[in-house]
Each structure stands twice: as C-alpha cells, then as structure tokens.
Specification:
The chain is of the alpha+beta class. The protein is built from 24 helices and 21 strands. The strands form seven sheets. A five-stranded mixed beta sheet has the order 2-1-3-4-5, sandwiched between helices. A four-stranded mixed beta sheet has the order 12-16-17-18. Helix 8 packs across helix 9 and helix 21 packs across helix 22. The protein is flat and about 125 Å long. Bound molecules: zinc ion.
Length: about 725
C-alpha cells in the first residue's frame, strides 16, 4: 500500500502556505457511551496527529481539538469544539484539518457546507485516512459535498429505522417505558397491578373521592385532612422499584386522574416534541403538555388491568375540562381590578403572589397560595390590597411629578456625559491598535522577500496586530450595544409633557383599573411583600423598572390590639386621657387625631371602642350609663368580660363568637346593656376546646362541632 502522505497527488496539493500554518486534528465521538465503547476509534483519531507530521507539519504546529468528546447533537450549538475549529479556520491560522472520516466532521449538511466554504476561502486542506482534499478544486469540492450528503442520508436512514422499530413495538402496545403509581412493570415487560394492597387502595380512593368532590383540590384536601400519603416507586437508581410514601400534591393527583392507563388503555406519543421549542443540550425540552387520549400516536384500549371503567375515565376528563374552563372564565371576568396583579412576589418563599377577590364587594387581597394549592398546606402569607395599593399609587405619582422627573433627567444627562468619556477612551484604544497594525503592515511590505525567517516573524506580528484590532472592535461593539439609547432633546420634551398629564389621567373617572395597572407595570419591576405575623405592618420592597428600589412598611389588618405594635403606647395614652377626666367620645377623637388606628379594618375609633378598651384596662368610663332596671345573672351565667378573663381570651373575640351564634348570650338589662353568657361545666369545656383547636382545614369537622352551642339547661 502506498503511503498517501507521499503519494504524488497528495504532495501536489500541499503548498508552502499550508505548511506555514497549523494542522488541526478534530476528534469527536457522539455520546459518553460511545466514548467508552469506542476507545479504539478515539485512539485512531489521536493517531491522526502522526499523519499530519508525516505530511510535513512540525509537531509544534499540530493541534488537537477534542472539546466535543461525548457531545451529541446534530448541530454546532452546544459543541464548542466545532465552533473553535471554524473560528481557527476563519482566523486564517489553519493549513490542514484532519478527521477520521471527513464527512463525520460535521453532523448536519448545514455545518458541513459552512466548514467547506470557509476552508475553500482560506485555502485550507482537508484530510482523512483516505486522502487529502483541496476544497478549492472542483473535483474535490464535489466529492466532499457528496460525502456530506451521504453521511446525512445515512444518519437519517439509521434514525428512521430506529424510530420505526420503536413505533412498531408501540403499535403492538409493547413499548412501555414507565408505569405510573398503582402498576408494576415486570422485567418481562408485562404490566400488572401493584402487589401492595395499600398502594391499590390509595389509587382507588383518589378516583372515589374525585367522584364525590369533583375537583382535584377537593381530593387533595381530603387526603391531607386524613393524613393519607401517596405511594411512589423509584423509577431508577439503586433503590429502583422501592416503595416510598410522600405527601400528596395537586400535580400527582391530576396526573392520576388524566392517565388513561387506569382505565386499561395504552398510549404512545401523547407529548409530541415541537422542534421550535427545543433547546440544545436539553433532550426533554420542547415537549407539549399532553394530548387527549384519542389524539395520541398510538392508542389501544383494554391492554392493561383497569382501576376504573372507560366511561368513568371519560366522565372524569369532562369534569376536569369543565373545572378548568370555569376557572379560566372566572379569571377573565375579574381581570384588571387589582393594581398590582402579577407584580407582587412573596418575600418569604419567593413565589409570585396572586390576587384573591373574594365575594363581590369584598376588598381584594394578595395571597401566596402556591403551597396551599399544591400541597394543601396553610397559606404562606396574605395582605389586603387596599393600603399596599394606595402607597404604591402614591409612589408612582410621586416619581412622575415634574420636580422628580427633572432630577431623573439631570441624572440621565450625567450618565450620558460619563458614557461619552468612556466612548472617547474606547476610540483612543482602537486608534492605537489600528496604528500598530498599520506599522506592522509597513514593516512587512518593506522587508526583502528572500529573508524568509524575518518575513515569517513580521507576518505573524502583523497578523497579531490585526487580530487585536478585530478583538477591540468586537469588544467596543458589545459595549455600545449594552448601553441604553441616548435621549434626544425632543425625547426629553415629550417626557416632560406626558408626565404632566399622568396625575390627571390617573384620577380620571374614565381611566379603568386596567389602564392604571398598565402604567404601574411600565414603571414597576416587582413588589416584594413580607408579612410578619407578629407585626401589624408588612414590609414592602418596591423595585422600579430602572433598578432602583425603595422600602416601606404598610399597615395591615390584624386580629386584635395585642397584635398591634403600638398597643403599649395606645394603652398608656388611653389611661392618661381617662385620668384627665375625658369622656369616651373625646378620647376617641383625640386618639384619631394623634394617629392611632384600631385593628381590623376600622378606620377610626368610636366612643364604644374606647369604652370597651377602658373596660379591658380595668378603668371605668367617666359618663355613667343609663340607670339599669333591676335584674342580674342567672345560674350558670357569666358577665361576658369576666368569662373572657376566665378563659384568657380577649372580650372582642368572645363578642365575635356571640355575633356568630357560637354562644348562648343575652343582654341583662335590655338593649345596649352588658352581655351575659351562659356557660356551665360542659359548655365551659366546649368553649375551652374551641379556643384551643387550631384553625386548620384538617380540623374543620371538629371545629364545626365545637362551634355549635350545647343545649341550654
Ligand atoms: Zn410565600
């Protein structure tokens, strides 16, 4: 066999300008598996360096690019090695590219032709085990183009054959990758019910509960209330097939309800891949959200043992779809009422908070409900929208005030000035680099061509100078792109004019909530809320679109005076005013005037509130009540405030219970007089239990019982 390196054809193609530049060996294997399996092929690829040496390249000028070892993928994205190869060629540093098989250098025709085009333009030779090719020559170019096409065709046929084989298996209903909870796939490929009785019982329970409750959330709440956990069998790893019990989640329940296997059906290809949404390096990206059973690529009924009938499965799907459309419709009607919808984030768990509108007429609030809707846990936090929105609206209008705007525009001008300094600096650097390149070029041209060694050094110097210019230009371009657009004088004038109109527009009756929200969204990046249950003020962090942020605390409705941060101050002030001989009405007005606020949602104090507070502090209101008719407590009755003290509750709470009908109570001297509560032994026990029972969804049945007063003796 003749050595191709010394064959007359090969040596005819080799020119001095090829040998002056580098030889690159490009080593590639698709998958880590192949890398492990085909050690020999990899060794052969590295041996190509010897071939480059045999063709006449000095060892120091042979470089190996093996960044793509173990990289699969049909395109250059995600394959830095191939990109580096292209870059080296385009920088005119390469004289020869070597690969084990030419056509395998690139995996798609597009990449291959790009490489060919570049090699032809920069007069680079290509070589594999069979020979040396010069892409500037017609015959070689044709031949290389054809090899690329053949390789792509081969790949296509191979993939098609693999896919067809898989599809045939699926058509027979035999291709089962993984089975959901409640089923077991045996090594033989057979699919049966899970042998664990408890697992089967939980699956059946989910279907039964869905029949009864009709919503995924209903089923989830039921499972949580009864502390039922979900079975999970590990699909892979050392514990494969091992049974674990995990807390239920909305998603697992939904998947069970939607999976046709539970009705005994087989499906394949229910999540087709959309090539437009695929990302390189993410094999599972671009998959759809799941087709209806009938639209799947393969769909066969009665293939597996079934938990439910097909009719029941279909009824469930209809019910789920109806729930979904009702949910969407509800969202659409209310859309636009809350100013900050979609902008509020939870400062505790980092999730987006949603708007809860409640019943008509009720004030909306922002809630972090992800944990509750996914896992049935209590709400993370919530805050009524009113005070938050009022403060944010104030801030929005404040930043648009002419004075504030002038400050921003001045700041922008300063930024521009600093930027022009930077730009000047860049221009100077570029100028210097271009001058260096010019000088290197002049030196190169002035040199005698016979002095080969000097010419080569000068050429390299010129080359390096040009590269430096190129690099700087690219850097400058990147810098310029990263800078925001400059404001012209016309832009400024327009901003000033528009800003003057914003406050009027904001308050105009024809402006809808959606319009206001639009304005807020333009200016505000997000609002982060942190509610501390022990504090009656919530921390708000307002992040503006420009990156600035400001913090504030807004008042929130709390359950009682004890939760209020200024209760000590309030009680002291109350006692002082009372000591000065003021009547409740005067005290109420004074407290309002001094900026105190009652808890819950009341805006101002009333005389009645002050009277109750004085009562609580053990002080007697100054103005005596109307003289009371004779009367008194009956057997088993307590004064309401005494009972509250006995139970360690606030009288407000007990009054709340009374209003809700959870107590037997009466006004001893008629309308407007103090309340008495009947609570003998058993009833007192009930009230204690009611007081101590945590307000959780899981306790709701127990709470409902405890809230019913015992029959009065
Ligand atoms: Zn949260």
């Amino acid at each position: 066999m003749t050595d191709p390196a010394h064959s007359p054809v090969a040596s005819a193609k080799l020119r001095p300008w090829h040998l002056d530049r580098n030889a690159i060996v490009y080593v590639r294997q698709s998958t880590p598996q192949q890398v492990a399996d085909h050690q020999e092929s990899t060794a052969r690829q590295y041996a190509l360096a010897d071939r480059a040496a045999a063709l006449g390249w000095p060892r120091s000028q042979v470089c190996v690019i093996d960044d793509d070892l173990g990289k699969s993928g049909r395109s250059i994205e995600g394959r830095p090695g191939f990109q580096r190869l292209l870059a080296e060629v385009a920088l005119d540093r390469v004289g020869l590219v070597l690969g084990l098989e030419m056509s395998r250098l690139a995996r798609s025709c597009k990449d291959w032709h790009q490489l060919l085009e570049l090699c032809a333009r920069f007069r680079v030779l290509l070589a594999d085990a069979d020979g040396v090719y010069d892409p500037t020559e017609y015959a070689d170019r044709l031949m290389l183009g054809l090899t690329g096409m053949m390789s792509e065709a081969e790949l296509h046929v191979l993939k098609g054959r693999m896919h067809q084989g898989k599809l045939n298996k699926a058509r027979r209903g035999e291709l089962v990758v993984a089975v959901p909870v409640g089923y077991i796939k045996h090594p033989s490929g057979e699919v049966t019910f899970d042998p664990d009785e408890q697992v089967r019982a939980v699956v059946r329970l989910i279907f039964d509960q869905f029949d009864e409750r009709g919503t995924v959330h209903g089923v989830l709440r039921y499972l949580i209330a009864h502390d039922i956990r979900m079975p999970v069998r590990a699909q892979s790893g050392p514990a494969r097939g091992h049974l674990e019990w995990r807390p239920p989640s909305r998603e697992t329940i939904r998947q069970i309800l939607r999976h046709p296997i539970y009705a005994g059906a087989y499906r394949y290809g229910h999540r087709p891949t959309d090539a437009r949404r695929q990302r390189p390096g993410h094999p599972k990206s671009g998959r759809g959200s799941g087709l209806a059973a009938e639209d799947c690529q393969v769909f066969l009924k009665d293939r597996f043992p079934a938990y439910i009938s097909w009719e029941r499965f279909e009824a469930n799907q209809q019910r789920l779809a109806a729930n979904r459309s009702r949910h969407e419709a509800a969202g659409a009607i209310r859309d636009g009422a809350a100013l900050l919808a979609g902008l509020v984030w939870c400062g505790r768990c980092g999730r987006r908070m949603y708007v809860r509108y409640g019943r008509p007429g009720q004030r909306p609030s922002y809630v972090c409900s992800a944990q509750r809707s996914d896992y049935g846990l209590p709400l993370c936090q919530s805050l009524s929208a009113e005070s938050l929105e009022a403060w944010v609206a104030e801030q929005v209008l404040a930043v648009l005030r002419p004075a504030a705007l002038e400050t921003s525009l001045t700041a922008a001008a300063e930024v521009e000035q600093r930027r022009s300094q930077l730009t000047r600096h860049w221009e100077q650097r570029l100028e210097r680099a271009r001058f260096e390149a010019d000088r290197a070029a002049r030196q190169y041209h002035a040199c005698e061509p016979e002095n080969r060694l000097v010419v080569r050094t000068l050429e390299r110097r010129w080359d390096e100078a040009l590269q430096e210019v190129q690099r700087l230009e690219a850097d400058y371009d990147r810098f310029a792109r990263s800078q925001p657009r400059l404001l012209g004088e016309a832009d400024r004038a327009q901003i000033r004019r528009l800003a003057e109109e914003v406050p009027a527009l904001w308050h105009s009756p024809t402006t809808t909530a959606a319009d206001r929200r639009q304005i807020a969204r333009l200016l505000i990046e997000r609002v982060v809320l942190t509610v501390d249950p022990a504090d009656d003020r919530a921390a708000v962090r307002l992040e503006w679109a420009g990156g600035a942020a400001q913090e504030h605390r807004v008042r929130r409705a709390v359950r009682g005076y004890d939760d209020q941060s200024d209760w000590p101050r309030l009680s002291a002030r109350l006692a002082a005013l009372h000591g000065a001989g003021q009547t409740p009405a005067v005290i109420a007005a004074a407290l309002d005037g001094e900026g105190f606020r009652p808890p819950k949602r009341a805006d101002r104090f009333t005389a009645a509130m002050v009277r109750r507070l004085l009562d609580r502090l053990g002080l007697r209101p100054r103005v005596p009540r109307r003289t009371s008719p004779p009367g008194g407590l009956n057997a088993g009755e307590w004064w309401l405030h005494e009972l509250a003290g006995h139970l360690g509750l606030s009288p407000h709470t007990l009054h709340g219970w009374r209003r809700k009908g959870w107590l037997h109570a009466r006004q001893v001297y008629g309308r407007g007089s103090p309340w008495a509560v009947w609570a003998d032994g058993a009833e007192l026990d009930r009230l204690r239990q009611l007081q101590n029972c945590p307000r959780l969804w899981s306790n709701r049945d127990q709470l409902a019982t405890l809230r019913r007063p015992l029959p009065r003796k």
